[in-house]
Amino acid sequence: MSGPSDQQDELLIANEVEQETSRALGKETRQVLTAVLIVAAFMALAHFTPMKAWITNVQSWKGFVREFGWMAHAVFMLVTAGAVMMGVPRLAFCSAAGLIFGFGEGLLLSLVGSTLGSYGAFILSRHGFRRAAESRAEKWPWLKKMLKKPSVMRVFWARQFMVPGIVLNVLIGMTPVRHSRFLLGTALGYLPLNIAFSLVGSGLGKESITTTMTQLLAAMAVINVAAWLVFRFIKKQRLAGEDAV
Description:
It contains eleven helices and no strands. The protein has helices spanning about 5-50, 50-65, 70-85, 90-100, 105-125, 130-135, 140-145, 150-160, 165-175, 180-205, 210-245. The protein has one domain. The model has no long low-confidence stretch (mean pLDDT about 75). By secondary structure, the chain is an all-alpha fold.
């Protein structure tokens, strides 16, 4: 059984998690809003100026990529996985996947690729490739405490923080978390931003400005709803911890 000191530690961690989550979700929302505004401005120019030829070129290029069939999908997914494993931020690949393959296929490819890339770093961390990430992780001491008892939800929460993915992958790899929990928590944790940026990327090059704007608004709705749900859940967990003390 856990004693009062353990409960106090859990409460302190919960408070820090709530504060960091609030900051991170705010930053994520600003990132999506910035991307939405840039794409909206660009597509407005593209539709109402001589730049409209760019849209036709994009559609032709996408048709060329589709001719490669499953090979194009496999290559993109492997490139994404390799880049994420080495610490490259995944969001650019989410937008690129949406642009090249469309929202549905782009979301699936970016989610699978980024999850596999993170899993690769996770596996490497269990074979000693951790020193650099450990030194960088000193900036987030509360995160190491939170991950001492890893679960699917704690892996999910960790993915909401503005912590470099390579650091998280190695930190989680240093815990006794099961592989299945890592994969499920990572995929769920990546999902909100992957959806938003796949929608933004897919909005580029659309022949209809209405379709583009609908997707951009959907991206903002997804990230705001996800942020509200995550923050509400974490706050509920923190309040439950306070009641237990």
